[in-house]
Amino acid sequence: MLAHSIGFLRGILVLALGMAILPGVALAQQSAPASGEYRIAVADVQALLADYNKRQQLYNQLESEVESRQREIDQLSSQIEAARQQYEQQAPNMTEAQRIERRNQIESDYLTYTAELRRNQNYIDSREEGVLREVLADIQAAIERVAIQDNYHLVLNAQPGPRGSVLYHSATIDITSRVLAVLNSAN
User: Fold this and answer.
1) Are 54 and 138 in contact, with CB atoms under 8 Å apart?
2) How high is the pLDDT of residue 96?
3) Which pLDDT score, from 0 to 100, does residue 187 have?
4) Alpha-carbon distance 49 to 142, whole Å?
5) Are 54 and 187 in contact, with CB atoms under 8 Å apart?
6) Which one of 3, 58, 141, 149 has the lowest number of neighbouring Cβ atoms within 10 Å?
7) Are residues 79 and 51 in the same domain?
8) Tens digits of per-residue pLDDT, 79-100?
9) In total, how many domains does the chain have?
C-alpha cells in the first residue's frame, strides 16, 4: 500500500511538473517564427554615427557655437593680459594702494575668466551629450524600423575590432547601409 501511495505521489508530481513546463513550451512555440528559424542581422553603430547626416549637421552647429564662445573667452583673456602688462609698466609710478587695487582688479577679472571658461565647458559638454543622445535615439529607431520591416528577431552591433560585440559576421546579414539610408532619408 505504501509503495502504491509513493508511486501515486510521484505520478502527481511528474504531472504537476509537466503542467508547469508545458505552458512555457507552448508560449515559446507560439512566438517562434513559422519557419522555425530566427533571423539575425548586424549593424555597425560606429559607422552609422560617422555617416549620419543629422549628426554631422548638429555637430557643425555645435562647433560653430563653440568657436563663438571661444572668441569671447579669448577676448577676456586678452583683456586680462593687457591689464597685467599695463600694471607692470605703471606699477613703479603707483602708490601702494593703487597697486593693491589694480592687482585685486586683475585677480577678480581672472576669477571671472576661469568661471566663464568652466561654465562654457559645462554647457558645451551638456550640449554634446544631448546631441549624442538624440542621434543614438534616431539610430535605435531606424534599426528597429529596418528590423521590423525585414522580420529580424535580433540585431547585434557589428563594431569592428576587439571591442565589438560580434567577432565575425557574413556581409549578407549586415543591415548598416539600409539603416543609414533610413536615417538620411528622414532628414
Assistant:
1) yes
2) 94
3) 65
4) 12
5) yes
6) 3
7) yes
8) 999 999 999 999 999 999 999 9
9) 2
C-alpha cell recorded at residue 107: 585677480
Given phi > 0 = left and psi -120 to 50 = alpha, else beta, which region is 111?
alpha
The answer to whether residues 58 and 116 belong to one domain is yes
Q: Which residues of 76-87 are buried (b: 16+ CB within 10 A; e: fewer)?
A: beeebeeeeeeb
| 21 or 117, which is more confident | 117
- Cα–Cα nearest to 144, from 186, 184, 173, 175: 175
> What's the domain range around 155?
32-185
By the 10 Å C-beta count (0-12 exposed, 13-18 middle, 19+ buried), 142 is classed as buried
**Cell numbers 564662445: residue:** 69
| 64 close to 179: Cβ distance less than 8 angstroms | no
